[in-house]
Amino acid sequence: MTPQGLKRTLQDFKAGRIDEEQILSFLKDLPYQDLGFAKVDHHRSLRHGVSEVIFGRGKTTQQIIEITAASLSKNPNILITSAGLEVFEKLQPRYEFCEYHPHCQAVTINPEPPPEGRGKIGVFSAGTADIPVAEEALVTAQFMGNEVVHSYDVGVAGLHRILAQREVLQSCTVAIVVAGMEGALPSVVGGLVDLPIIAVPTSIGYGASFGGLAALLGMLNSCSANVAAVNIDNGFGAGYLASLINRRRPQTTDP
Question: Is 181 helix (H, G, I), strand (E, B) or coil?
């Protein structure tokens, strides 16, 4: 349940458009709804400003369908990460604004635009092979209401490519930098601009990269003080964190 949706419901009750039984029924599942195999957190958007996101991997298609239906009963929008085409094909006939993002296998249902961010989020990948993780960050940030710019395949093996992006970087409020192999690109970007840099290590690389561990350690040990790292292949976490940094705070008035 979004703050706006809750306000509308309370206004309907105050105006007499719904009665006590209807509002009690509405509030019954507000903290969470128990589906047996999942407890859908309808309260998440009131606490975080964004509804609960479904992590598709490991869930059956039917479980995802039921969680989606439960979530959309209280929240207008939903993001499903690591979903796959089969999930989209089952959901698309049911929901008008259902969209599939093939590069990161995410599904979004977004009929009600979220509040806009205060600036731009930049997403940059070191290599083409890092694009799926970068796209997950991009889709997440867009789902949460942000303007996103991106540039891919700008890694340190051809340093002139990221240097050519300095103007784009400087236009951003926060940058997400995705890299595998030795994970050097976030440190380079951190040294170019005075932005928060969210570094995302990917599992791309040869044997000694240890499935992204080498990139993660490199990012954790960055000598650029404006760099912080999320977990390996966690584009969603980077997009979510960048969105919180870029969030436009509501105006408050003195009492």
Answer: coil
Q: How sure is the predictor about 26, in pLDDT bands with cuts at 50, 70 and 90?
A: low
Q: How open is the CA angle 135-137-140, to the nearest 5 degrees?
A: 105
Bridge partners for 125 per DSSP? 178
Residue pair 239/50 in contact by the 8 Å Cβ criterion: no
SS3 for 226?
Answer: coil
Burial string for 65-79 (b: 16+ CB within 10 Å, else e) reads: ebbbebbbebbbbbb
Residue-range domains of the chain with CATH:
3-109 (no CATH), 120-245 (3.40.50.1970)
Q: Which of 125, 73, 68, 70 is nearest to 93 (CA)?
A: 68
Mean local confidence (pLDDT), 163-170:
93
Alpha helices, H only, 92-212: 131-143, 159-163, 166-170, 185-190
Q: How far apart are CA 18 and CA 40, in angstroms?
A: 25
User: How far apart, in whole angstroms, are the C-alpha atoms of residue 85 and residue 16?
Assistant: 44
pLDDT digits (tens, 9 = 90+) for 7-24: 677 777 777 777 777 666
| 181-212 b/e (C-beta count within 10 Å ≥ 16 → b) | bbbbbbbbbbebbebbbbbbbbbbbeeebebb
Joined tokens for residue 184: 């050097």
Q: What confidence tens digit (pLDDT) does each residue in 63-85 have?
A: 999 999 988 888 888 999 999 89
- H helices of 32-82, in order, are 44-48, 61-72
The amino acid present at 92, given as its one-letter code, is: Q
Q: How far apart are CA 213 and CA 1, in angstroms?
A: 38
